Amino acid sequence: MADAGILVLRAFLALLAMPIYLLSFLGIWEPFCKKIFFPFFLDKLSGLHENKAKKYKQELFRNLPDFTGSSGELKLLEIGTGFGMNFQFYPSGCKVTCTDINPNFQQGLLKNMNKNQHIHYERFLVVAGEDLHQVPSGSVDAVVCTLVLCSVRDVNTTLKEVLRVLRPGGAFYFLEHVAADPASWKYFWQQACYPTWKLVFCGCCLTREIWKNLEQANFSEVKLQHISITLPCTPIQPHIVGYAVK
């Protein structure tokens, strides 16, 4: 019965989003989404999510200075920088390399860079999380990734790249929305929304069990907590937050 209900709701949502499906079929939606729609949507959602997540981020990034390397300067790489919503939580003087597969966040990114002059911005790379070849192996003390692993093409390959660029003893910080309990109504709605949500929001996957990928990666230690961040009218309430040490 549940499977039938999911199929019916998927069909209903697809009908509502039929113009987008048509634009996707014609090859128009993806470039429009990346350049205009998704940056606009993310700008609106980021502020709301930030208000809900701020206390978790403050606690999460509190120990970042502990991972400063022998140079005396914390070298940090962020995957999927977006508008730079995390800059405010980084310690003064740290050197940040920004990366994002989508280069269309300039206006919001520059705004947050100007607001956060306490950190040094090294460079911005337009690269996918699965291929950070421009970053030397073992060259950074910390990697940060928030609300990004839901939309990378391959979570495991991304985590391998994280481990490669981290120096031994470095840390990977994450905050991601994840799949709900399979026995819950939240999971039912995630399953129902999945195809249309993924199409509309640039490949964002609702049902990834990212904690399993982290636990199976070759980190020496993983500190992870399941939390709930409620965003009205969205199926992305369940989150994980924490850090993992190489």
UniProtKB/TrEMBL annotation:
TM region positions: 7-29
Stored SUPFAM superfamilies: S-adenosyl-L-methionine-dependent methyltransferases
InterPro entries for the chain: Methyltransf_11 (IPR013216), SAM-dependent_MTases_sf (IPR029063), Thiol_S-MT (IPR052356)
Gene Ontology terms for molecular function: S-adenosylmethionine-dependent methyltransferase activity
Cross-referenced Pfam families: Methyltransf_11 (PF08241)
Keyword annotations of the record: Membrane, Transmembrane, Transmembrane helix
Positions of the Methyltransferase type domain: 77-174
Family matches, as PANTHER family: METHYLTRANSFERASE LIKE 7A (PTHR45036:SF1), METHYLTRANSFERASE LIKE 7B (PTHR45036)
Designated name of the protein: MET7A protein
